[in-house]
Recover the amino acids of this structure.
């Protein structure tokens, strides 16, 4: 199995980095901002965590509040 | 011309500030990585599954073609979905917020606004598409070696054309209803209509929907260029019609 795993590593690592990176970026943004276009904090946390790849994207495009909210916690 | 360039610059800056550019690139890199991975994993995962009655499922090892099949499936579905999510506000957002009012009052031509928005969205889509293609290509060569890709230009080009067609739809939809929902409705109408037409297999060579991933059949030789070329020309014509209609509607619209 470890032999097999090694053939996958060059492809698994970049994918994991991208997906985790997006998820963490979305979570940081969710927890440092108070206002969302709709929904509340926990709804977006659940969406970002549960829907692989699309969840964080949905948050950044649809859920994120407008730029004027920047900074208020 | 200068107003076109400056509006394009503003659009690019906005795509950067609203994370659209980064999201598109990151998501399409992920899709590019995902395709060869799925192709490689599936036979290993499924092989040895007991189907009952002592029959053990045997899967042949994956080939480069499996990787490309996954690619066309991923980009044709997930990729297109991400494109729609990211660009559904291409014209609708600014119209609903009213931020275009001052810029138009200062004498910016309305056709310039539409063309600039369309071209920046198309450039970002092109960039993301090429990046995902390069990633999948690199992994496919790494795992399976480079093999012939017959009609590659048409196969990949038509997937790209389909994306541009959706962008043109979203531009018109946003102009018509002045909200992001207009863009979503326009895409839904086109996809549903395309799928209804596709119920009759004879229309497939002319239906833009067959460009959304179907062109992988060119790579394995099961279909010929004649099965897709008419749809490509029809899509290109549709893009021009949609843009022309957007300009015409926008010119008459109260902002």
């Amino acid at each position: 199995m470890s032999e097999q795993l090694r053939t996958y590593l060059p492809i698994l690592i970049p994918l994991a980095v991208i997906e985790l990176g997006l998820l963490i970026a979305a979570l940081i943004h969710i927890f440092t901002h108070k206002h969302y276009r709709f929904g509340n904090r926990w709804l977006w946390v659940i969406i970002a965590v549960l829907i692989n790849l699309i969840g964080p994207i949905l948050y950044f495009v649809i859920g994120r509040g407008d730029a004027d909210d920047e900074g208020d916690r | 011309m200068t107003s076109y360039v400056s509006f394009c610059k503003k659009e690019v800056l906005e795509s950067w500030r609203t994370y659209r550019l980064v999201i598109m690139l990151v998501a399409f890199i992920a899709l590019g990585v995902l395709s060869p991975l799925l192709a490689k994993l599936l036979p290993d995962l499924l092989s040895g599954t007991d189907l009952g009655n002592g029959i053990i499922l045997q899967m042949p090892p994956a080939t480069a073609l499996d990787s490309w099949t996954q690619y066309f499936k991923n980009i044709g579905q997930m990729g297109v979905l991400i494109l729609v999510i990211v660009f559904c506000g291409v014209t609708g957002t600014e119209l609903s917020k009213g931020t275009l009012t001052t810029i138009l009052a200062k004498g910016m031509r309305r056709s310039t606004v539409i063309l600039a928005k369309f071209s920046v969205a198309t450039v970002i889509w092109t960039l993301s598409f090429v990046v995902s293609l390069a990633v999948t290509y690199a992994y496919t060569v790494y795992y399976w070696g480079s093999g012939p890709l017959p009609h590659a230009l048409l196969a990949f080009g038509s997937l790209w054309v389909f994306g541009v067609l959706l962008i043109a739809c979203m531009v018109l939809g946003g102009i018509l209803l002045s909200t992001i929902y207009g863009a979503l409705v326009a895409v839904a109408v086109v996809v549903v209509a395309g799928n209804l037409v596709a119920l009759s297999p004879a229309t497939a060579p002319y239906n833009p929907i067959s460009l959304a991933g179907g062109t992988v059949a060119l790579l394995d030789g099961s279909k010929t260029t004649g099965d897709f070329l008419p749809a490509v020309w029809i899509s290109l014509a549709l893009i021009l019609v949609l843009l022309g209609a957007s300009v015409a509607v926008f010119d008459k619209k109260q902002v």
In short: Chain A touches chain B through 21 residues (CB under 8 Å). The mean pLDDT of chain A is 83.
